[in-house]
User: Which sequence fits this backbone?
């Protein structure tokens, strides 16, 4: 491409870039960048071509100037031709000078050509890079398209999965409803249509509740002779069945106690005294065992049986109250006799200890 053609192409590119900028916000930035790159390449190529042309012109001018200078060069009105011995010597000098100047220009020309070759190689490399970029861009665009398709498929799969999960939940709910209907029908077949609605599986829970309630009631302290101490009914007085001790409590604390009759209180008191006597006997046995060996206190099985039968009679309830009074008196007498026997045994043990 000649210099004139390059200059014309450069002007066309500049005009195209200027026209694209005139579009304002509608301009195509990618097109402008591509045109600018072409303009830069042509500008560099034009610069190289112009420098080559200028160099060739300068070489011709230098040859003419060298010949003219040598022909007209004088020293003290003596020309170069006269300084040489003959015409042949002058021509040799002229040729050598011209060749020297030509070698210098040829070297400069070679450097310019080398620069042009490097520029062409760089342009070729840039074109190859651009081609690779375009190929990679196409591959990337294809991958983006594939990713978009996969994403759409994934979203469609998720929608189908959610729909299937909803259908599964509905199916489970329907199965549960049908199972409930089957259970109702089985109950209706077992007990009849009228009594089917009355069948409730609460037997175990009810039994546990009753057992726990019995345990709670048994653990409550027994009281009797409960009296209200004020008009509001906020405080009460009562006697503990076991110790006959009088206590005072509020209406909120009333549930902590279980109320019994006076006859039932006698039974609780007798049981309490029996336990206390048994504990006292055990303590005395331990004390005697420490002194002179183990002392066995005889027991009256008949007394125990009679006491238990009398206490059972009290629990069953005697309408005239005679049985309760007799049982209470018998228990007191038996306890007194038991205390006397314990005292006697203690005295005997003490006597044996002193004798030893």
Assistant:
């Amino acid at each position: 491409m000649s210099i004139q053609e390059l200059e014309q192409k450069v002007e066309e590119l500049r005009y195209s870039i200027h026209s694209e900028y005139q579009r304002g916000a509608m301009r195509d930035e990618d097109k402008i960048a591509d045109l600018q790159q072409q303009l830069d390449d042509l500008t560099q190529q034009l610069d190289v071509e112009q420098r080559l042309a200028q160099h060739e012109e300068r070489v011709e001018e230098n040859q003419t100037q060298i010949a003219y200078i040598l022909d007209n060069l004088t020293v003290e009105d003596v020309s170069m031709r006269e300084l040489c011995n003959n015409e042949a010597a002058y021509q040799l000098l002229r040729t050598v000078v011209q060749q020297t100047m030509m070698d210098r220009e040829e070297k400069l020309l070679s450097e310019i050509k080398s620069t042009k070759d490097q520029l062409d190689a760089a342009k070729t490399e840039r074109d190859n890079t651009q081609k690779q970029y375009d190929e990679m861009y196409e591959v990337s665009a294809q991958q983006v398209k594939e990713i978009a398709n996969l994403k759409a498929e994934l979203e469609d799969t998720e929608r189908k999965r959610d729909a299937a999960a909803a259908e599964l939940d509905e199916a489970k709910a329907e199965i549960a409803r049908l199972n409930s209907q089957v259970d109702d029908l089985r109950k209706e077949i077992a007990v009849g249509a009228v009594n089917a609605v009355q069948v409730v599986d609460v037997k175990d829970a009810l039994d546990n509740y009753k057992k726990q309630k019995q345990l709670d009631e048994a653990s409550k302290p027994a009281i009797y002779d409960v009296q209200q101490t004020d008009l509001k009914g906020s405080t009460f007085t009562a006697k503990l069945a076991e110790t006959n001790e009088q206590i005072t409590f509020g209406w909120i604390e009333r549930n902590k106690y279980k109320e019994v009759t006076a006859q039932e209180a006698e039974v609780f008191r007798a049981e309490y005294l029996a336990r206390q006597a048994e504990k006292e006997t055990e303590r005395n046995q331990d004390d005697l065992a420490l002194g002179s060996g183990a002392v066995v206190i005889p027991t009256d099985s008949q007394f125990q049986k009679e006491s238990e039968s009398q206490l059972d009679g009290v629990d069953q309830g005697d309408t005239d109250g005679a049985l309760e009074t007799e049982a209470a008196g018998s228990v007191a007498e038996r306890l007194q006799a038991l205390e006397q026997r314990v005292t006697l045994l203690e005295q005997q043990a003490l006597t044996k200890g002193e004798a030893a």
Notes: The chain is about 75% helix and 5% strand.
